[in-house]
Write a structure and sequence with these properties.
The chain is built from 20 helices and 24 strands. By secondary structure, it is an alpha/beta fold. Strand 12, helix 16 and strand 13 form a beta-alpha-beta unit. Helix 16 packs across helix 20. The protein is globular. The two termini are about 35 Å apart. 1-deoxynojirimycin (NOJ) binds next to loops.
Length: about 725
C-alpha cells in the first residue's frame, strides 16, 4: 500500500475512534449514482445518505460538476467530512476511447499500455473520478466468453506485463497527484475459465491452472502497487469468490502481500444468497466481510446486514474497523483529505484533448492485425479511383466504441466511411451496408452487390455490434451474426467473377470463427473495436500509411469445438503429430488453429536466422541473452515482432510445449537487416513467485524464437541449466 504520512495514520485512528457504526458501514458501502449499471438498478438511496454518512463512496457519477457537488456534500455537510471514493469503469478510455484491452494486447508493447492508461486516468481525473475498475486481468482461452475483449488474451505472461503497465499508467508516480486514479485489479480469480464460456458460470480449475495461468497477472498488479482488487462474480470450485477467505485473505493478502482495498463486484455480496451460500443479507454480509471484502458495491448488504451480524456474533467490530482503516488509508493515499476537489478542478485544454486523439489513432492502427494478405491486395494501390465500402460496420460510428464507453460521446467516433473518405479524397467511394449487424433483413444485399461492379477493390466491414462482446455477451456461435455471411459470400462471388479484390475487415471483441472467409477473402484484418479514431486507423492500415504490426494475443480457432485452444498446452503422451490414429486429434477437424497466437502480417517480408543464446549454460538465478538476426526482404519499411518461447525438455511436472517469456520488436527499411536481443531471466521459468515449483530443475531448455506460436515458424537453440 505504500507508506502513509504520520499525520494521515493519526487522522485515521482519530476518525475511527469517532465514527458511529453507521458511519463505518457507510465507508464500506459504494452506491451507484446514475443509470449506468451492470446489474439490477438499486434504488432507495439519495444525497441525504451521503450527508448522514450512510454512503461513503459512489460509482457511475459522470461529469466534474456532479462529482464536485457530491464531494462537497460529503466533505462539508457530513459530520466527519470524509471525502468519497468516486469509481467508474474507465476501461479503455474515458471520453477519448482507445481500443479495448484485448486489442491493445495485440500491440505487445508495455509502454503503449501504460500510456493509454495514463491518458485515460488524466481524462477521468479531470472529471472528478478517483478510482477506475481496471485493469481487467482475466486470462481467457475461450472466445465464447464475451469478456475476453476486456482482458489480455490467453497468455499469463502478457497479462502480467499488462497488469504492471496499466497500474503504473492509472496510478502514475504519485497516487495523490490530481491526475492519478486508483486502479482495481479484477476479477480475482479465474473468471476467464467460466464453464463453457458462459457468462457468470461456475469456475472449477486446478491449483496448477490457478498458479500458472490465472494468478500471475494479479501477482504482477500487486507488485506494481495496485490500490484495490475486485473479486469475481463467479465461484471457484463451489466457493463464491466474494466469500472466498482462502483466496482473498490467504492467497491475495497473505501470499501476495496485498494490503489495499478489496471492493466487491456489482451487487455480488447480496448474490451470495443466489449462489446458495447465505440465507439472507445478514449472512451474506458476514461471509463477505469475513473473507476480506472491504467495500460492498451497491448491494446494501453491509449497511443492512452487518449490524445484525455483529449482534449475532457472526463478525466482530475489529473486522469492520480493519476494513474501514483500509478504505480511509486509500482515501489518504489518494490525497483526498488534503485536496478533495483537486480532481475535476481544471478542465483540460483543447490541445491536450487533440493530442490524446492522435495517440488513440496511433494505438488503434497498431492494434489492427493483418491476418491474411495472400494476393497482396493490401496496401491499396496509391491513387485508387473507385472503391466499394460495404457491410453493416462500414458506417457505424457508435459501434466503434467497443464494450465500455465511459463518458464518450457516441457522435465523436470516426466511422470507417468517414476515415476512408478523408484518406482517399480523390477516390469515388460507393457505400452500402447490405444488411444489419444481427437482424434477419437481407433486402439490402442485392443493392450492395451492384456497387461492386466497376470498382478496383471492395472493402467489406463485418463483425459484431459493440454490445455483442463484453459483460453478459457470451456467444455459443462466435461467427458472423445476422445475414452477414450471406452478404459476404455474395460479394465474394460477384467480385471474384470480376477479379476485384475483396478486403474483409472484422470488428469484434473476440476471434470470430470464419475459416471460409479467411480462405476466400483477398485480405482479412482483425480491427477489433478501434475506438474513437476507428475510421482513420483502419484507413491508415488499408492505404499503407501505417504498416500493420498488431499480433493476435489469443489463438484463433477454426471451429467452436476446438475451444479452448491455446499455445501453452501440454503435449500428453500421444501428441497430435504422432503417426497413426491413437493420437490427440479430432477425427473431423484439424487440431491446428486458424491463426496461431502471435500471428500477424506486415507490409514487409521478414526472415529470421541464427538464433543464439549467451551464455549457453547458466544458473536458475541468471539472466541470459537470446539473439536472432532479422532481415526485411519486402518492398517497404515495417516492424517485425519476435516472440521468445521456452520449452523445458524434462521436468517433474509435464511442461507446457511452449512458454512465453519475451517479445521484441524491430523496425527495418526495405532490404535492411538487424539483430534483436531479448533478455531471458531464468527465474521467470518457475511458476511466478507462488508455491508449486520449488526450484527449476537442471537440464536442457529449448529456446524458440519466431513470429508466432506456430511451431513450424520457430527457430531453436539450447540452454543448459546447471546447479
Ligand atoms: C460488473 C462488472 O463485472 C465489473 O467489471 C464492473 O467493474 C462493475 N460491474 C461496475 O460497473
Amino acid at each position: 500500500m505504500g507508506t502513509l504520512k504520520t499525520q494521515d495514520a493519526g487522522r485515521i485512528d482519530t476518525l475511527i475512534g469517532r465514527m458511529t457504526l453507521t458511519e463505518k458501514l457507510g465507508q464500506l458501502t459504494m452506491m451507484s449514482a446514475s443509470h449506468t449499471v451492470t446489474g439490477p438498478v438499486i434504488t432507495g438511496h439519495s444525497v441525504s445518505d451521503i450527508r448522514s454518512g450512510r454512503i461513503g463512496n459512489l460509482l457511475n457519477l459522470i461529469g466534474a460538476a456532479a462529482a464536485r457537488e457530491m464531494q462537497r456534500v460529503a466533505v462539508e455537510e457530513s459530520r466527519l467530512g470524509i471525502p468519497l471514493l468516486i469509481g467508474l469503469d474507465v476501461i479503455h478510455g474515458h471520453r477519448t476511447l482507445f481500443p479495448p484491452p484485448l486489442a491493445e494486447a495485440a500491440l505487445f508493447d508495455a509502454q503503449a499500455w501504460a500510456l493509454t492508461a495514463r491518458e485515460a486516468a488524466r481524462e477521468a481525473a479531470a472529471d472528478g473520478i478517483t478510482m477506475t475498475f481496471a485493469p481487467m486481468l482475466d486470462v481467457s482461452r475461450d472466445p465464447r466468453w464475451g469478456r475476453t475483449v476486456e482482458g489480455p488474451g490467453e497468455s499469463a505472461w502478457v497479462g502480467a506485463r499488462l497488469a504492471q503497465a496499466k497500474v503504473r499508467g492509472f496510478q502514475g508516480a504519485d497516487l495523490a497527484a490530481r491526475d492519478s486514479i486508483a486502479a482495481v485489479a479484477k476479477h480475482f480469480c479465474g473468471y476467464g475459465a467460466v464453464t463453457a464460456g458462459r457468462e457468470y458460470a461456475s469456475v472449477d480449475v486446478s491449483d496448477r491452472a490457478l498458479l500458472e495461468v490465472h494468478l500471475p497477472p494479479f501477482a504482477a498488479a500487486v507488485d506494481a502497487g495496485v490500490a484495490a482488487v475486485m473479486p469475481a462474480f463467479t465461484d471457484l470450485a463451489g466457493i463464491p469468490m466474494t466469500a472466498h477467505s482462502g483466496m482473498l485473505r490467504g492467497r491475495l493478502r497473505r501470499q501476495l502481500g496485498f494490503e489495499g482495498v478489496v471492493v466487491s463486484d456489482y451487487n455480488a455480496v447480496a448474490e451470495l444468497i443466489q449462489h446458495g451460500v447465505a440465507a439472507d443479507l445478514i449472512e451474506a454480509a458476514a461471509l463477505a466481510l469475513e473473507a476480506g471484502v472491504d467495500i460492498d458495491m451497491v448491494s446494501g448488504a453491509y449497511l443492512e446486514g452487518l449490524p445484525a451480524a455483529l449482534e449475532r456474533g457472526l463478525v466482530g467490530l475489529a473486522q469492520i474497523d480493519e476494513s474501514v482503516r483500509r478504505v480511509l488509508t486509500l482515501k489518504a493515499r489518494l490525497g483526498l483529505f488534503e485536496d478533495p476537489y483537486g480532481r475535476g478542478a481544471a478542465a483540460e485544454s483543447a490541445a491536450v484533448v487533440a493530442e490524446r486523439r492522435r495517440l488513440a489513432r496511433d494505438i488503434a492502427a497498431r492494434s489492427i492485425v493483418l491476418l491474411t494478405n495472400g494476393s497482396g491486395a493490401l496496401p491499396l494501390p496509391a491513387g485508387i479511383g473507385r472503391l466499394a465500402l460495404l457491410g453493416p460496420l462500414a458506417d457505424a460510428p457508435a459501434e466503434m466504441r467497443g464494450p465500455w464507453w465511459s463518458a464518450a460521446d457516441p457522435d465523436a467516433q470516426v466511422s470507417v466511411l468517414a476515415g476512408i473518405r478523408a484518406a482517399l479524397p480523390q477516390a469515388q467511394i460507393r457505400h452500402a451496408s447490405g444488411c444489419g449487424i444481427a437482424d434477419p433483413d437481407d433486402s439490402g444485399i442485392a443493392g450492395a452487390l451492384q456497387l461492386c461492379d466497376g470498382t478496383e477493390a471492395v472493402v467489406l466491414c463485418l463483425g459484431e455490434a459493440a454490445t455483442m462482446s463484453g459483460e453478459a455477451a457470451s456467444r455459443a456461435h462466435p461467427g458472423l451474426p445476422g445475414r452477414q455471411q450471406e452478404l459476404a459470400e455474395a460479394v465474394l462471388r460477384r467480385a471474384g467473377a470480376r477479379a476485384i479484390p475483396v478486403i474483409a475487415v472484422l470488428f469484434s471483441g473476440r476471434p470470430l470463427i470464419v475459416p471460409w472467409l479467411a480462405e476466400r477473402a483477398s485480405a482479412l484484418l482483425a480491427a477489433w473495436f478501434p475506438g474513437c479514431e476507428a475510421g482513420h486507423a483502419v484507413a491508415d492500415v488499408l492505404t499503407g500509411r501505417t504498416s500493420p504490426s498488431g499480433r493476435t494475443p489469443i489463438t484463433w480457432p477454426r471451429a467452436v469445438g476446438q475451444i479452448p485452444l491455446f499455445f501453452g498446452q501440454r503435449s500428453g503422451g500421444r501428441p497430435a503429430d504422432l503417426a497413426g490414429p491413437f493420437a490427440s486429434r479430432y477425427i473431423d477437424e484439424s487440431t491446428g488453429p486458424l491463426f496461431p497466437f502471435g500471428h500477424g502480417l506486415t507490409y514487409g517480408r521478414f526472415t529470421l536466422s541464427h538464433p543464439r543464446v549467451t551464455p549457453q549454460s547458466a544458473r536458475a538465478s541468471d539472466t541470459v541473452e537470446v539473439r536472432v538476426d532479422v532481415e526485411n526482404h519486402g518492398p517497404r519499411r515495417a516492424q517485425e515482432t519476435v516472440f521468445l518461447f521456452t520449452r523445458r525438455m524434462k521436468s517433474r511436472v509435464a511442461p507446457p510445449t511452449l512458454e512465453l517469456h519475451g517479445v521484441g520488436k524491430i523496425a527495418l527499411d526495405a532490404g535492411a537487416s538487424g539483430t534483436l536481443t531479448l533478455p531471458l531471466a531464468l527465474e521467470e521459468l518457475r511458476a511466478p513467485g507462488l508455491d508449486l515449483e520449488p526450484a527449476l530443475e537442471p537440464g536442457a531448455i529449448e529456446i524458440l524464437v519466431g513470429p508466432s506460436a506456430d511451431r513450424a515458424s520457430l527457430l531453436t537453440c539450447r540452454l543448459e541449466l546447471v546447479d
